[in-house]
Specification:
Length: 184
């Protein structure tokens, strides 16, 4: 018997296998950046949802009679930035107002792009922001014994805004109704 001579790969087999490997590398390289962006967006979205729910819980704990600037600000529950004066009271629930809670909750720490490589806050138009919009809930309006219009509910909408690495603004909002303790 003659000794077996090992068979070598042909040039076509080598080229074809290199093309298959190259194709797989290109496919992986195309998918990885997209999956990283999706993961970052998912993380930011989850963070925003958590912040909105936390702020809604704080507003619900404050209650209907707590829906005024001194109570929500630094002089009271410290739910919003600073110690604003308006509205000082909201006895009928009939004043619409927007408050910010960006600094109170340090939103820049919660999203990519809010801090630089040293961990310092980045300021500017693309800084993450949080807003609370309070308004009377019109379907709950009624006339009290004195003939004044009162509202049985205040609608509170909490919004968190942040920017993606490409400069696109994203936002997540949640709304709750805060009931008046007693309806006359």
């Amino acid at each position: 018997m003659s000794p077996r001579i090992p068979r070598a790969f042909t040039i076509m087999e080598v080229v074809l296998s290199l093309l298959v490997v190259l194709f797989m590398v290109v496919m992986v390289a195309a998918v990885v950046p997209s999956s990283l962006r999706t993961s970052r967006y998912s993380t930011d979205f989850s963070q925003a949802a958590s912040l909105v729910q936390h702020k809604i819980n704080q507003l619900q704990d404050a209650g209907y009679n707590g829906m005024n600037a001194p109570n929500l600000g630094g002089n009271g529950l410290a739910i919003i930035d600073g110690s604003p004066n308006t509205p000082a009271t909201n006895p009928l629930g009939d004043q619409s107002v927007t408050f910010e809670f960006t600094d109170r909750d340090k939103l820049w720490q919660s999203f990519a792009g809010g801090v630089d490589s040293t961990g310092a806050r980045i300021t500017g138009s693309n800084t993450p922001r949080g807003y609370i919009y309070l308004a009377p809930y019109s379907p709950s309006a009624y006339t009290n014994a004195a003939g004044a219009t009162e509202y049985g509910l205040i609608r509170a909408t909490v919004t968190v805004q942040w920017w993606t690495s490409k400069g696109n603004m994203q936002a997540f909002s949640g709304t709750t109704l805060i009931p008046r303790a007693t309806v006359n």
